[in-house]
Amino acid sequence: MHVKVNALRGLMIEDLEDLKMIARPTISPDASKILYLVTTPDGEEYTTELMVIDRMTGEKLWNIEEGNPTNPDWAPYGDNILYTDRQGMEKDEKGTSLWVAEKNTSKLVGKFNGGASQPKWSSDGEYIYFVSGVGEDDPDVKIIDKIPIWFNGEGWTYYRTKHLHRLEVASGEVSVISEGDMNVQCYAEHEGKVAYCQSANPLRPGESDLIVYDIESEERDRILSGYMIQSLQWSPDGNEIAFTGSDGSRGYATHVTVHKIAVDGGPVTNLTGKLDRGSSRRHYHDIRSMYAGGCEPIWDGDFIYFPVSNSNRHELHKVDPDNGNITPVLIGQYSIEEYSVKDGFVAYTRVNTDKTPELWVLDTSERQLTNINKKLIDEIKLQQAENFSFKQKDGAIVEGWILKPVNWKKDESYPAVLDIHGGPKSKFGDSLMFEHQLYASNGYAVIYLNIRGSGGYSQEFGDIRGEWGIWDYEDLIAGVKKALELYPWLDKERLGITGLSYGGFMTNWVITHNDMFRTAISQNSISSWTAFFGTSDIGFHFTPEQVGGNPWSNLNTYVDKSPITYANMVDTPVLFVHSWNDYRCWIDQSIEFYTALKYLGKETQLAMFMEGPHTFRSVARMSLRKRRYRLMLDWFDKYLK
Fold this sequence. Notes:
Blueprint: E1 21-27, E2 33-42, E3 45-54, E4 60-64, E5 70-74, E6 80-85, E7 96-102, E8 105-112, E9 117-121, E10 127-134, E11 150-151, E12 155-156, E13 161-168, E14 174-176, E15 184-190, E16 193-199, E17 208-214, E18 220-234, E19 240-246, E20 257-262, E21 269-270, E22 298-300, E23 303-310, E24 313-319, E25 326-330, E26 335-342, E27 345-352, E28 355-362, E29 366-368, H1 374-377, E30 385-391, E31 397-403, E32 414-420, H2 434-441, E33 445-450, H3 459-462, H4 471-486, E34 490-500, H5 502-513, E35 519-523, H6 529-535, H7 539-548, H8 555-560, E36 574-579, H9 588-599, E37 604-609, H10 616-619, H11 622-640
Parallel strand pairs: 32-33, 32-34, 34-35, 35-36, 36-37
Antiparallel strand pairs: 1-2, 2-3, 3-4, 5-6, 6-7, 7-8, 9-10, 10-13, 11-12, 13-14, 15-16, 16-17, 17-18, 18-19, 19-20, 20-21, 22-23, 23-24, 24-25, 26-27, 27-28, 28-29, 30-31, 31-33
Helix pairs in contact: 6-7
């Protein structure tokens, strides 16, 4: 007897509505349970559910689905869980609330109109620490005397300072721990002492002062300055502090690595720099939950567990802080999204190019605990990536990947889309990109490359300060030529190019310097460095490093490195896509270039999405995300099919 098997279909735009996103895996203090969040599209909104399961069996123990719980943290004992939620707040009311749940029962702890980010329990469970903005905005007239005036994803920020707060659970009393007018970046508490990092330089806001504050004595000691610090962890004995960060020796291209320092100061030891790989999560993954956390080192017992960005993978390793020995923990053809460690057990979410993220655990064995997208995955065909590489003229090895169109046939030719990642120190990883799979299901091959400037490789490879549009451009062109050579079924007359942020800059740069591509889509891009310097939330410190100098000391270079300078050279039809609330690459970047091309009689169009931050393609309202995909597919279809 023959059993009929239904053929898998290609991905559709509407499938975005059915993709659930998993985030924040956290092991309980007794290591018996794991909590995690599931984000589900719900019309124009995204709802979250907090799940608690048994670590060994994966059995559901309880859940919190009322409201939208985010930023969960286990209490140091018992089953209490701290989380943030806007439940009970008006739609236009600013800020968020802190809640504490004991299993299914939740209690409001407090509302904070300045927000409550990075909420954590104190080590004794009697207090809750969080970061909240202090200051009031004037909705009518904004009197501004500092920069940046705004920040991407947050809006206007000129009026407030982010301070570290402490809330006593029993009384509800709140006190402010930090002082001054510089933002708190990160913190960690240990038995009555709080280590926190505060921005040290208003013109270089990523630089940090590391301060240790004793709650009882109220003594405050600055133990380190000059590093760019992203996260902090205390040693179990409270004598040392581990941090992820860099000394900035290569500016923002410097690898973020794991360091340690004694609690009373002294020399800094770089524990993981010898790997010549960074510990930041750099891989692109456009269905990551908007409520996902970071991917930060964890000091568990005798080891510090830390992530490693290596090629297209995101791995987990551990280092012995006493002798510096490094041991791999989780390495494979996948990317780790988030993880938690307790007593040597690891709970983590992982993703592949052709698989959605799911929760896994490493204890007595390595096994998958969830399958939240099974129904959809059983219906659709997701393409695996094929890796290729090539050696550049200067000896550098550059990696690339290609997705074949769904239902590819070797005797047919196909159009291709080249996608360029942002950053520039982001990277393409072994991680699902809905956009790539959508192109593949609509008959396109997708080419993507980790060119010079990408994360996942050596510091030298990732450092293109002052050289945007040189080796990165050469790598892109050489990579496409290599793909055409290796995959003769690609139609060289039907090539499209796109990219977002830095990828948008490179799209602009390529079409002003090359006519290889029949059409282009430039997303949330950069076209003018002088404008970017003045309007971007990071422009005044990012641009001098990446371009060199400032518009008054080095104007010629600012002009030479701006794609808009060469607008008259564009022969490629180009669609500009931009979101109105993008304060990283402000809307002026696309408007300027679009206006220039229209004035010059070029073929162009501008799609302005009237809401959404720099990353709106992943976090905007569902209808806007779907419409963006439709616009882009229609544009490519018009010129490539």
